[in-house]
Amino acid sequence: MLRSRFVSLPKTVKRSISTNIPVLQKATDPIQQLFLDKLREYKSKSTGGKLVDPTPEIVSERESELEKLSVQYGGDKGVDMTQFPQFKFDEPSVDTGLDKK
């Protein structure tokens, strides 16, 4: 049903819709452009996933929150809770009953 409506549109309308899509993807709002510029600035400042321009208060608050999380989720002192856990699955012993006679 929708397809039949779209097919009935003149070719000039179809062309204008397709040529206006890239124009709509650019930032025309000055606030949006400032936001994108700030994101690019933070991306250039960010190195290795570390905080951008951290103050000593922010660093100490982050450390205290990580310590609270490690205590809450079972991490001991010296355990790096930012690493993915290592799983070890032991092979279960299966008794087939063939050994008994």
Automatic annotation (TrEMBL):
Cellular localization per UniProt: Mitochondrion inner membrane
InterPro entries named among the record's database cross-references: ATP_synth_f6_mt (IPR008387), ATP_synth_f6_sf_mt (IPR036204)
Subcellular location, principal: mitochondrion
Gene3D superfamilies: Mitochondrial ATP synthase-coupling factor 6
Chain segments annotated as transmembrane: none
Pfam families, per database record: ATP-synt_F6
A GO term from the CC aspect: mitochondrial inner membrane
Swiss-Prot/TrEMBL keywords: CF(0), Hydrogen ion transport, Ion transport, Membrane, Mitochondrion, Mitochondrion inner membrane, Transport
Top-level division of the source organism's lineage: Eukaryota
An annotated GO BP: proton motive force-driven ATP synthesis
A GO molecular-function descriptor: proton transmembrane transporter activity
Family statement drawn from the similarity comment of this UniProt entry: Belongs to the eukaryotic ATPase subunit F6 family.
Identification of the protein by name: ATP synthase-coupling factor 6, mitochondrial
Annotated source species: Lasius platythorax
Native organism taxonomy: Eukaryota, Metazoa, Ecdysozoa, Arthropoda, Hexapoda
